Every structure is written in C-alpha cells, then in structure tokens.
Amino acid sequence: MLVDAIRAEGFRLSKNRTALFWSLLFVPIISLAIGALTNFVLKGSETKILGDEKMPPELKAALGRGTLDMADALVTAAGNLANPLVLLFVLIGAATLYAGDYRWETWRLISARNSRVNLLLAKLAVVALLALAAMGFMLLGSVLENLIKAAVFERTLTFALTGEAAGRFIGFFGLSWLRIIQFAMMGMLAAVVTRSLLAALFVPLVVGVAQFFTPQMLGPMGVMPDAWLSMLVNPGASIDAIQAVIAGGEVAGALPDGLVLKAWVSVGLWTLAPLAGALAWFRKQDLSKE
Amino acid sequence: MTAVIETPVIHVLGLTKTYGTVRALDGLDLTIPRGGVYGVLGPNGAGKSTLFRILLGLIRPTDGTATIMNGPVGDIAHMRLTGSMIETPRYPPYMTARQVLRWLALEHGITGTADIPYWLERVGLSEAADRKVRGFSVGMMQRLGVAAALISKPELIILDEPTSGMDPPGIQEMRALIRSLANDDGLTVVLASHQLLEVQRVCDRVAILNKGKLVREGAVSELTAVGERLRLSAGPVDQVLSVLGAKGVRDGDGVLADIPRAEGPALIRALVEAGVDISEARWVGTDLEAIFFTETGAVQAPETIHAG
User: Fold this and answer.
1) What is the ipTM of this complex?
2) What sign for the dihedral angle of Cα B1, B7, B10, B16?
3) Structural domains in chain B?
C-alpha cells in the first residue's frame, strides 16, 4: 500500500516539469555556468594574476598546472551539497508535493484510496528521492566543471575514489542528504499545519536561519557551543561536527568528548520530530476545505 | 433475496457533526441498501456533503458511527471498495486526463493502463484524453471525476452533484451512465443532487435530509404513488363529474379522479358508456419535488410547481 502511494506520487511529480526543472536542474546548470565562466575569466587574466604580487596565493595556485584530483573534488562537493541554494530549490519541489493536494483540492480524490499515513509518507519518500536526484545532478555539474577546469588550464586528471576517500564521500553525501531531509521534514510539517505552499517553502528556511543564529545568542548567556542546548538548537552545527569526525585529522581529534553523541541526538530530533508532528496533525485533520 | 443483497453498503447511526455552534448533521440515522441508485436530497446546508465527506474519511464525525462496505469509516480496506466524486473535482493542472486516471489508478495499486481508454470512452472524454486538464470545462471536470471514481472498479460509487455544470445532452448521457452502472455493472450508486427531476428519473430510492436529519426515506415509486390520481381530458366535463360524484374534481379543462389504480379500467368503461369523449387518461402522482418542498419546508417558486 505504501509502495502504491509512492508510485502514484512519483508519477505525479514526473509530470510536473516546472517543479522538476527548478528542483533538479536549475542550480546545477547555474553552478556549472558560473564555474565554467570563472575558469575562462581566470584563464584570460592568467598572466596578469601570476605577475601581480598582491594577488592571494590560493588564486595563483588555482591557475597551476599540477594534477587535478577529481576524487578529492567530489568529496569536497559532497560535503557542500546541502548549501542554501540547493536547499531552497529542492524545497520548491518538496513544497509543491506537500501543499499540492491542498492547493488543488485533490485530497478528496485520494483520501479513500490509501491511508493517510501512507499518503504522507509517500510524499516524504518522493522528496527523499528528489533530494538524491538533485544531489546527483549537483555532483555531475561538479564533475563537468572540473573537466572544464582541467581542459582550460591543461591540468592532468586523476580519479581514485577508493578506501578512505570513498568512505568520506559516502559519509559527506549521506550527511548532506540528511540535512536536506531535515528541511524537507520541516516543510512537510509547515504544509500540513498551514495548508500553504509558501509556508512549506519559507518556514524551513526561516527556521534554518534561526538555528544558525541561536547559539550566538546563547553564548552571552553562558551556554557553551558544545553544550547540549547549543547542539540541540543547531542541527547544522551538529552536521558539521559529524562531518569533521568523518573527515578525520586534527579537527576531529580536537572535538570535545560526547559531542558526537549530542550531534546525532540533535540530528535525529530535528529529523523525526517534524515527521511525527506532521503525521499526528494530518491523521486528525479535516480535509473538507483543502 | 440473498444475504449479500441485504447487506447495506452504508449504515450510519446517530451521526453528528458540528462546526462551532452549527450542527451540520444532527444524529442522522440512515441505511443505504446494496444495489441500484440511491439519491440523497436536501436543501443547501441539509448535511449531504458533510455526510459524504465523513463517509469518505475527509472529516471526522463529532459523534455517532458510520460504516461503509461493512467496515468502519477510515478503514482503508473497506473504503477502497468505494469510488467517489465530491463536488466539482479539481486536478493538478499540469496533467492530462489520461495521466490523472493513471495517477489515481496507481494510488490503488493498479499498474496496468488497459482500463483507462475504456473509462475515458465511457464518460465521453476520449478525444480530450491527452489534453491538459487546466483547459477543461466544468462539465469535462465532472466527467473525468466520474471516470476517476470508477477507475478502481469499486462496488460503491458516491457522486456529489454529478451533473453540475453539464449541458442538457451531457446531463442525459450522465443519467444513462449512472443507470448503466447500476443495471449493467452491478454497482451501487449513491448520489446527491439538487435537480429533483433528475433524481426522480434516475434513482430507485431516496433519502431527504433537512437540517442534518433524515425526514423521509423510501423507494421513489412508493413515495410518488402516494396521492396518485387519474387525470382525464374528457368532455363534457359536467357529465364526467356526475359519473364520478364525490371522487371527481375539476382540473382546468379536465377532471382529476381520486380512485385506486385498480378501478381505472372500470371507470373508463363507465364513462364511455355514459357517452363521454375521452381524449387522454393518465395517472398523476405526487412528484419528488412536491415531497421535497413539503418535507424540507423550503419555499417553492411558482414556476416549479408541477401538476404531475
């Protein structure tokens, strides 16, 4: 039954080309275009940049002729997939899925065909797949951008995504996906409670901004960044902490004891609490006026 | 009659739904038998749509119980045996009619697409099958809604105002489709409509709701047979009245005879023997409209009053 609902929801989304374009393709295309353009501009100004002593060394290094490690680039890209731009545009698709049945008054068409829990979980499952697809397109864009960079600067390409690098890639990719899903859960709760597409889109973003700034407000009150409260109100910092552990090295070694546990609790709470809230609300919701 | 036929498809007991201080349903008791076409009538605010919405799990009752297809409302296994169209349906505007049916079939776990052209044909939407629904008229939306209700091959179909927004040929086609669903496909059809003449023509039984309560229920033929009289277009009228005595009353250029149907042939013979010329004789009953206005206390506009 859940699989029926997922299949139906997926079919419906597959016909919504507008939502698919903005959720999946817009950000990768724009990112690729900007990245490629930057490479061409840098190439055009190469002599000037290398000859100017005031230019930052990082910029000069980017113009170097050494090998370009695609695996390293992919791992870095995987760690940055849950950036605000990707989040915003994935949420457009998620909001359309969550609020579409209220907007088009289509609950009445499907409410007797499957259980309410299945109907809502199916939306979440499709959003989860949508997020995976969006992340896949972003990675593809990253690969293409690096290929362009290698061609423009005549750099040799290497690619060895094995062992530790593969582990980091999977870990970073999973954490980015989890972060996007957290926002998607908040969007679902907002959509169910308000029945509004705009709320499903913007409430998670506003909450995300608040999460970012709350620990800074807690600091002056004597609450340390690694305290339970700080970690619980800021799942973004929790994701960063877990990412540091996956990355290893000195940063991971310097993390306070128990921080990872707090981070996982925070991530779990922000993932499951909105889901539970949305399901509980939706199960008793009157759908007479979608 | 078998036990299966006697099993009601819908049974509600003491069903109550309040919105603040408004009681949309007020302890409604109603049993809808399996088979045939069942009409639910009532003025605006009588509780018809509220009843349907509860039955389909869209809203929860404040009190009382409701079963559908012999299972409690909300039990999806039983509710899946029901197809429905509540008010004028709306659809995701970016989908075509064919895609809407495919989407709703998938929701039921039906992955095949073989039945979709059949139902599109049956509701007269074959030519518009691949058009986006955003360009559909209200009547086309209604037709697609009926197809959507039928795509899962339900045993019970609930239709709220199925002919709303349709032109006269469309209404006639819909009426034929509804009768065909009951007669040929063996479905139980429950519909709500404001078009009383339509209901009288298509329904086998009706329930009249008013202010959230059941005020009248029964077979259309039985309800309309009450007060049945023979109307005679015959002359001279005085001679007809003299034959009928106290049982006759002048009705325009004819006479209404208040006699049982069994006495009709004998009366005709007596009138012919008395030298009366009879140009027309027909039985007229109380129509559903008259019953509706009597039971609901609604004000009947002069142009809607029918002699029979």
Assistant:
1) 0.84
2) positive
3) 1-81+155-167+177-225+286-301 (3.40.50.300), 89-153 (no CATH), 228-284 (3.30.70)
